Amino acid sequence: MIGLRTSLPAAIVSFLAVSSGAEAYRWFNWQFDVTCEATGFYVPSNESELVNFVQYHYPRKTMLKPVGNGHGFGNLTTCVSEEDTERESYILSLTNLKHLDIHDNNTVTFGGGWDLVDLMPTLEKNGLQVANLGSEKVQNYIGAATTGTHGTGKQHQNLATQILGLRVLDAKGEIHEITKESTPDLLQAYSIAIGALGIIVEVTIQAEPLAYLKRTTKVVEGSSNITELYQQIADFGNKYEQVNIVGPTLNYDQDKHELVVNPNMTLVYWEETDYQGARNCSLDFCSNDCGRCDRDYVCYDYKMEAIATTPSGICYRGFMGQFEHFFPIESLAEAGADYMTYAQAQSDRMKPYIDDEIVGPGLKGHYLSDDVTVITRFVKGDDNWLSPVNKYNLQPNASGIFATLEYSWIPTYNNFTTQYFFQELASEYIPKFGETYNVRPHWNKMIFHNETYSSTIYPKMNDWVDLQKKMDPNCQFINEFLAESLGIDRCQYLFD
Ligand SMILES: Cc1cc2nc3c(=O)[nH]c(=O)nc-3n(C[C@H](O)[C@H](O)[C@H](O)COP(=O)(O)OP(=O)(O)OC[C@H]3O[C@@H](n4cnc5c(N)ncnc54)[C@H](O)[C@@H]3O)c2cc1C
């Protein structure tokens, strides 16, 4: 379940428009392929206004969907459209909750309104940074952390592991303080809460002193044999502590009428350094279409600039179908080869959708609409209940380090037919490889599996669902996607 299958014109509605909630509000995600119509978009000025709003709506059972910046590929921010139930439905933005306090021992408490693009420079001014980020700084901090957003590094964890405490508003309008010190189990439950355990109004994180990194970008030639190619990729993963492997790609050959593996890859890897003479990593970053990947170069910068780009807007303006799957690193060579072989075998099915048009500048100079790009990254596991890299069901000899495969199919902008076809391709991977490789999908990329699969990959899911009921007795934070993928049966009637 991803997009609503109605072709809508590109959004005219400004994402940041502030509505009193009186008129209907159409919500779109970042690439305008996921949409819904809420009763209104509510942007409280402060926490007490939000509490009043939530208390007013509790007896009315109004649907409530807190959002960050809608920078996802799935249905986490899809509101329950007004016409689908007899309830009202609001999108909530905490953008005004911008207080920030820095304490001793480098801990920082701040409101739910902070986006990474503002938060990181503010921390930097105070001599601080966080342990890791994803590859862009477009997300809201809560929006990113609560879905398990990650960067790369075998000793680097996802953002949720930076959290030491949360202040959460439940559906009745009551505040819950959850901290690592007093309620460590609950913090593991709430750190990845995907919008369903209440509205997170404030977070306390562990920050660290500023550090410099050297980033190296290097183009390498891979084997054209897929098995050998993925052994090479696994070897790169073993060699480098913190590496992002961009490629291989699959390109549609117009003469042969088939997808051909382009085994060239770009390694982007980071090393700690004392050199502080330059700050030039933000200029060109081979990451998520925010810079070129077809040349070798090095740069030096503060960690936050070296690992995450600050896009002016969004770096890429086409459509994109993307999943990202995490699995124990030990399976990388085998799983990587299986995924690529399956993707390549879809040539015949892709023929009707092939489009010669160049979509736009991208990682290799340009993207064609029929390219399939794979990125491999690494993440250290953790104990958060719904973490895609949770360590609860690993084999006894597993290292607790995960590899991720990110697959992107790229149709031209507004080409919904191809976008939906690529979503169909993406949906076939979990049934095919999920159990074999213990695969866990990224919460805010394309997800298609059901509760049975969820309970296998999240052994603590039932406890989490019990907690969800306590925080949200009337199913106000739930949408169809959450009800189905987590088996929240008591809310299912709303979507029948
Ligand atoms: C181009 C692109 C690049 C990306 N790169 C990476 C990457 O490098 N690494 C990676 O791991 N991911 C990556 N992602 C995924 C992205 O990090 C996640 O989708 C992230 O969740 C988006 O953050 P957001 O602020 O837009 O959150 P949203 O999508 O708006 O919301 C995400 C979830 O958070 C909940 N939420 C938001 N605010 C609150 C709140 N105050 N209280 C309670 N719940 C809340 C929402 O209900 C929803 O469930 C990328 C996505 C895109 C589109």
Automatic annotation (TrEMBL):
Domain FAD-binding PCMH-type: 34-210
InterPro entries according to UniProt: ALO_C (IPR007173), FAD-bd_PCMH (IPR016166), FAD-bd_PCMH-like_sf (IPR036318), FAD-bd_PCMH_sub1 (IPR016167), FAD-bd_PCMH_sub2 (IPR016169), FAD_lactone_oxidase-like (IPR010031), Oxid_FAD_bind_N (IPR006094)
Keywords: Oxidoreductase, Signal
Annotated TM spans: none
Cross-referenced Pfam families: ALO, FAD_binding_4
Gene3D superfamilies documented for this protein: 3.30.465.10, 3.30.70.2520, Uridine Diphospho-n-acetylenolpyruvylglucosamine Reductase, domain 2
EC identifiers of the protein: 1.1.3.37
A single MF term (Gene Ontology): FAD binding
Enzyme category, top tier: oxidoreductase
Signal peptide range: 1-24
PROSITE patterns the record matches: FAD_PCMH (PS51387)
Coiled-coil spans in chain: none
Pathway info: Cofactor biosynthesis; D-erythroascorbate biosynthesis; dehydro-D-arabinono-1,4-lactone from D-arabinose: step 2/2
Domain of life: Eukaryota
GO cellular component labels: membrane
Name of the protein this chain belongs to: D-arabinono-1,4-lactone oxidase
Organism, as annotated: Penicillium salamii
